[in-house]
Design a protein that fits this description.
Radius of gyration of chain A: 19 Å
Shape of chain B: elongated
Strand content of chain A: under 5%
Helix content of chain A: over 70%
Number of strands of chain A: 0
Shape of chain A: elongated
Largest sheet of chain B: none
Order of helices and strands of chain B: HHHHHHHHHHHHHHH
Structural class of chain A: mainly alpha
Number of helices of chain A: 8
CATH topology of one domain in chain B: Serine Threonine Protein Phosphatase 5, Tetratricopeptide repeat
Number of strands of chain B: 0
Oligomer: heterodimer
Distance between the termini of chain B: 46 Å
Strand content of chain B: under 5%
Largest interface: A-B, 37 and 32 residues
Largest sheet of chain A: none
CATH class of one domain in chain B: Mainly Alpha
Helix content of chain B: over 70%
CATH architecture of one domain in chain B: Alpha Horseshoe
Structural class of chain B: mainly alpha
Chain lengths: ~130, ~300
């Protein structure tokens, strides 16, 4: 199963980032999605949960592909699996860490040779697209 | 006003209160509506206000109405009868809760709470605290909401009522969001058992929905699906249907059944968000459990 993005703070951070990119004040965006500025402020800090309606209004307001929004986020996020891998890596002795790094370099080189055009979508994403067609 | 006629009003009003206690809202409304008609014809302004407040309190649960707002505010300002004022304040708070204007709702809920203490009615004190808890929960003030719910629950130590069962459900959901899973499960099951005993079928969808969420958060997928399906089957209001479909989709996705998840989420999109086809793909990719408030 593909690890899904879960961190509430990260969603809030992303909303703040997108709002700033669009030169919107908190009051302006809050007005567009039908909440108060103080609520949006708490949402951006990861303290405020919303209804499904509000979530979809926010996404609609940014007027961008949902995939684009969260593909960006996925690159920035750390799943529990990522954290576990980093912890395990840090617990290895330096020699072993070098070996792991060499192995990663080897796998990346191998992938580049085998797959000239990397796939943009995750397997799960691709499966969903297939169903929609 | 003759005694016989007033006795008729009292009978209507008591029948309305009895139906309300058993969650038979349509029946309650019909009784209060007739009582209001009688009060308009035969009663003084105090009785008319009382009848209007009772009728409005049930009407807002049944119909998408906000026209009582102006008159309820007027009653609150001019009427000296604490009973009517409390009911007016509570109903205004409830209207704002339904309109998702929680901050305004909190203002009136506090008035309702204070008047309930003045009147010394334990059931009204409890329902006022419950209302404040609901409004705070919708605003994601979970600790504050829990404190209000707890105040309300303390008033119902031994009573098996629909009102207490609803309160148990609300506080149970709050505890699950706070990560107090054991307490959350205990409260939610107590709510469900109480509603079953009371045969209040219409309300059972809510503890089922919260149990679906609690089991999902605990990683017990089959139980989550079972309660989610019960909520979907029993629940009539649109918010509950949306949340149930979302939770079922999320659960199926988490348990590694993307086809089933897709079916639930597609149903959610087609029935509730027909202009947003992208949400299926979005919910398949992003786990928004910690971003969503089922009571917002």
């Amino acid at each position: 199963m593909v690890q899904k993005i879960r961190q509430i703070q990260l969603v809030g951070h992303k909303i703040r980032q997108l709002r700033k990119q669009r030169r919107l004040t908190q009051t302006e965006l809050a007005g567009k999605i039908g909440i108060q500025q103080s609520d949006l402020s708490r949402m951006e800090k990861g303290e405020y949960r919303v209804s499904l309606d509000t979530l979809f209004r926010i996404l609609g307001e940014f007027d961008m592909g949902i995939g684009e929004f969260f593909d960006e986020m996925a690159q920035e996020s750390f799943t529990p699996r990522d954290v576990s891998l980093v912890r395990q890596f840090n617990n290895l002795p330096p020699e072993s860490q070098n070996e792991v790094q060499e192995f990663i370099s080897f796998k990346r080189a191998q992938r580049t040779l085998e797959v000239p055009e990397p796939r943009a979508a995750t397997p799960k994403h691709a499966a969903n697209q297939g169903r929609e067609r | 006003m003759g005694d016989t006629n007033f006795a008729y009003y009292e009978r209507l009003r008591n029948a309305g209160l009895e139906a309300l206690a058993a969650a038979r809202l349509t029946e309650a409304f019909e009784n209060f509506d007739e009582a209001y008609d009688w009060a308009q014809e035969h009663g003084d302004s105090l009785l008319q206000d009382q009848a209007f407040c009772s009728r409005s309190a049930v009407a807002v649960e049944l119909f998408p109405v906000d026209e009582p707002l102006a008159r309820l505010r007027a009653i609150l300002m001019r009427n000296q009868d604490s009973w009517s004022c409390r009911l007016a304040a509570y109903t205004i708070a409830r209207i704002y809760e339904l309109k998702k204007s929680c901050k305004k709702g909190l203002f009136y809920a506090r008035i309702a709470r204070d008047l309930s203490y003045q009147l010394g009615r334990e059931d009204w004190i409890a329902s006022s605290h419950n209302m404040m808890g609901n409004l705070l929960l919708a605003e994601s003030f979970f600790d504050e909401a829990y404190a209000e719910y707890q105040e309300g629950l303390d008033r119902f130590e031994t009573k098996d009522t629909v009102q207490r069962a609803i309160l148990l459900e609300n506080v149970g959901y709050c505890r699950v969001v706070q990560g107090e899973m054991k307490d959350g499960f205990r409260l939610l099951f107590e709510s469900l058992r109480s509603l079953r005993r009371l045969q209040a079928d219409g309300y059972q969808a809510y503890p089922h929905l919260s149990l679906c969420y609690a089991y999902m958060e605990s990683g017990r997928w089959p139980q989550a699906l079972r309660h989610g399906m019960r909520a979907l089957a029993l629940g009539k209001d649109r918010e509950l249907q949306k949340n149930a479909l979302y939770l079922l989709g999320e659960t199926a996705n988490l348990m590694g059944d993307p086809d089933r998840a897709h079916d639930f989420l597609l149903k959610l999109q087609q029935e509730h968000y027909p202009d947003a086809p992208h949400i299926v793909d979005f919910l398949m990719k992003v786990d928004v459990r910690q971003f969503i408030n089922l009571k917002a």
